[in-house]
Amino acid sequence: MDFNKLILYANILGICFTVALTYIIIFNIIFGLPVQPIAIAMLAIGYVVMIKRNTLFQELWDRWFSGRKK
Question: How far apart are CA 8 and CA 28, in angstroms?
Fold first, then answer.
């Protein structure tokens, strides 16, 4: 497998897992289920890594909010 393709898949999974964990925590709060402290810590770390290190997220963010059309 190509190394760049592997990095792309890792970046995609980093975005998906962070967004999914956000929805799981919101779901647990709405329905009164317990929210584990480790889940909140993982969510915070996931967002920091996604915003700072995930090149795919940074590219998508630039495309969505820069106003350029493609």
Answer: 30
